[in-house]
Amino acid sequence: MADLRKLIADLGYDHVRSLLNSGNAVFTGPAKPHDTVAAEIEEALVLKLGVAARTVVLSCDELDTIISSNPLADLATDHSRLLTFILAGPHSRDAVEALCGQNWQPGAMALGERAAYVWCPGGILDSAAAAALGKQLGDATTARNWATLNKLQALCQELPA
């Protein structure tokens, strides 16, 4: 994670903080389109660290909206088993709508503006809903559990305005 923080700082971003060994970081910097920032980080990861990894960039406001819009937050009794799949674009949203209409009992799936939420009470690896969603979205998404998203939100709140 120290290498990731340095890599992001070397790209001209400030206040870089990472979350454990999760591959997640928060930072400040010049206003640029998120796709541009993601592409810069992806290229630097390959060139400097030899790691090819898809990168998703969200603003802190977008993360706040994803968290506040979760219709399954009250249903989930274990935040490590509540997954949030960040949607890459409108085509991802269309792909998820049909899945949300299915019965995933005892779990559940719901769709928000920028994310799909999956409650996996029996565990993530045993969740048919999470498996179906991951298969449907492929690499057009990244997923984090609810506990991780809340920790990232707390890091965002510590950034200077």
Description:
With 161 residues, the chain is of the alpha+beta class. It folds into 2 domains: 2-57, no CATH class; 69-145, Alpha-Beta Plaits, CATH 3.30.70. It has 6 helices and 6 strands, in the order αββααβαββαβα. The strands form 2 sheets. A 4-stranded antiparallel β-sheet has the order 4-5-3-6. Strands 1-2 form a two-stranded antiparallel ribbon. Strand 4 (108-111) and strand 5 (115-119) form a beta hairpin. The longest helix is centred in the N-terminal third of the chain and has 16 residues, at 34-49. The two termini are 24 Å apart.
Strand order of the largest sheet: 4-5-3-6
Strand content: 15-25%
**What is the CATH class name of the largest domain?**
Alpha Beta
* CATH domain fold name of the largest domain: Alpha-Beta Plaits
Number of strands: 6
Distance between the termini: 24 Å
> Which value, in Å, is the CA radius of gyration?
16 Å
Number of helices: 6
What's the overall average pLDDT, rounded? Answer: 93
Number of domains: 2
Uncertain residue ranges? none
Helical content stands at 40-55%
Order of helices and strands: HEEHHEHEEHEH
CATH architecture of the largest domain: 2-Layer Sandwich
Report the structural category. alpha+beta
Largest sheet: 4 strands, antiparallel
Shape: globular
